[in-house]
Design brief:
The complex is a heterodimer of chains A (100) and B (167).
Chain A lengths: L3 H21 L3 H26 L3 H31 L13
Helix pairs in contact in A: 1-2, 2-3
Chain B lengths: L2 H22 L3 H21 L3 H26 L12 H21 L17 H8 L4 H22 L6
Classes of the chains: A mainly alpha (100), B mainly alpha (167).
């Protein structure tokens, strides 16, 4: 049986890696992939908590997180394509009109 | 250490390594393929945590459908992955250190009080039958909301992805 604390530990490491990716990558596509890493770390905690509590609710939440992730990927990638069409780049350093 | 724990830690190594590749590699295609590997490793976690239905959903929906979308867009926009490495400025480095240390501090507080997994599980825990039963009884309203969300996302993606018409 897997202790809940090790699930928490692994998912914290994965979430931190995703955070580092979001903050340091330049391409919009790889920033997106790092967001997926963070989403999956959160899903893992939901499933681990579901196992620890012995109830199914956490798994249902993980299921809904996956649904939201699918919607987010579809809309986000459409935004990236629209951005590329207009600016000919996916480099987030060059899309800085609204940054201070 | 039981066999299950051994598989868990081996899988954890695979998941962390592939996450490192996703975060650090220059080439976006390699990143996407490493992400597929990472998602499969997460699916194995689900299997180890008695979530057989989510294991199947993760492999089919995430590692299958969503990653095909990702790879498609990566191949369309940036197949060579040129000039898209990591930028490490002072702001990024500071934010990264602050974020990671806050997370680790929170973990250090949470880990000792983490509960032990309950030994006895109900019959069919995590199977398609029990997930489906909950989905269509207790979680019927969120289920319908999710379907509306997917519809909205589909319309939004089509709207933003289409070619702009000159007027």
């Amino acid at each position: 049986m897997i202790p809940f604390s090790s699930v928490l530990l692994v998912s914290a490491v994965l979430f931190a890696l995703g955070l580092v990716g979001v903050l340091t990558r330049r391409s919009a596509l790889t920033i997106f992939m790092s967001v997926e890493l963070m989403l999956n770390a959160a899903t893992l905690v939901f499933v681990g908590a579901s196992r620890a509590l012995g109830t199914m609710d956490g798994q249902l939440f993980a299921f809904f997180v996956m649904t939201v992730a699918a919607a987010e990927a579809a809309v986000g990638l459409a935004i990236v394509i629209a951005l590329f069409r207009r600016r000919r780049t996916t480099d987030m350093d060059q899309v800085s009109l609204l940054k201070w | 250490m039981s066999a299950r724990e051994l598989v868990f830690w081996a899988d954890a190594i695979v998941a962390v390594m592939s996450a490192f590749v996703v975060v650090l590699h220059r080439n976006a295609v390699v990143c996407a393929l490493a992400l597929v590997m990472h998602l499969c490793a997460i699916a194995v976690f689900f299997l180890l945590l008695d979530a057989a239905f989510l294991f199947a959903v993760q492999v089919i929906l995430y590692a299958g459908a969503i990653m095909v979308l990702f790879l498609f867009v990566v191949m369309l926009l940036d197949p060579e992955g040129r000039g898209m490495g990591i930028r490490v400025g002072r702001v990024q480095l500071g934010l990264t250190i602050v974020g990671a240390s806050l997370l680790l501090m929170g973990m250090a507080r949470a880990l000792p009080s983490a509960m032990d997994p309950s030994p006895a599980l109900p019959e069919g825990f995590g199977g398609a039958h029990s997930v489906g039963r909950l989905l269509f009884t207790d979680y019927l309203f969120p289920f319908e909301l999710a379907s509306i969300l997917l519809l909205v996302a589909m319309i939004g993606a089509i709207h933003m992805g289409r070619k702009e018409v000159e007027r």
